[in-house]
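Good morning N.,

You mentioned wanting to compare the apo and holo forms, so I went ahead and generated the holo version with beta-D-ribofuranose. This is what I fed in:
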Amino acid sequence: MSARPIILDTDPGQDDAIAILTALASPELDVLGITCVAGNVPLPLTLANARKLVELSGRSDVPVFAGCSRPFVRSLVTAEHVHGKTGLDGPELPEPTLPVDERHAVDFIIDTLRSHPEPVTLCPVGPLTNIAMAIVKEPSIVENIAEIVVMGGAWREGGNITPAAEFNIYVDPHAAHTVFESGAPIVVHSLDVTHRALMSDEWIESLRSLGTDVGIASAEMLAFYERFDEEKYGTSGGPLHDPNVIAYLLEPSLYQGKSVAVTIEIGSERTMGQTSVDWWGVTKKVPNCTWIDDVDADGFYRLLSERLARYPLA
Ligand code: BDR
Ligand code: CA
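and this is what came out, ligand included:
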């Protein structure tokens, strides 16, 4: 079977980093490009971090694009309190030399969807600004989207940036609204599922003991990253959100979900960015996504370990 073409849209972020490294070690996926967006930190930093990660992976054949530097309507909200000042605190990675592709991320997404012989899967693991902007600029691209597999949203679990909202959707709720109303097939990995698979110190240490550059850097970034959620939630280990999107593509049988209608709140400041999930079909609205709400946590971490252990790639 040929590799599944994907575009990874990201705001690295340590959990984004593990998503990128896992995808780049997986021959089942053809990563056509990595498109960066402002989110966890401002765009110049997410862009530098993505380039550092591509260099770390040894996959400098994968182009990196600069996307939108701010949300559609609202001011940018960032998350240095979680990810550190650089967005990728933990390891000391060399300053990247990989050039940034000269095309804008939004144009790359549009051109790729228009020209690729197969439908392309979009994997946004940051605010949805680039994806929504591409849909607004060229609505016909929706026809060539295989799926949009999103990390974002929260329902049963509650929000992580406000009581109502998850960070990625909250940062650009208008973009999220555009994407969820676009008619494209969507699969959502929200906090409801990511909080069901917490990291353990043993797992992080097992990455370090791989002894490779990727293993050591991954352990350093995750040790930094999990401290925030451990303190916040009082748990041993924190959620590793974004790699769920990649794990789902590689092994969908690890996940369970339901087809539901989801509406993004853009009218109320108190609940801005909330994902309103019609789990019981009370609105009679046609479902617009699959809401993932369970994961085989052991299987998830086994899969990530197996992929990260492939570095350095031959
Ligand atoms: C999401 O927000 C970011 O901080 C993480 O990278 C993840 O994409 C979790 O709410
Ligand atoms: Ca992210």
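The domain at 4-308 is CATH 3.90.245.10 (Inosine-uridine Nucleoside N-ribohydrolase; Chain A).

Happy to go through it together on a call whenever suits you.

Best,
F.
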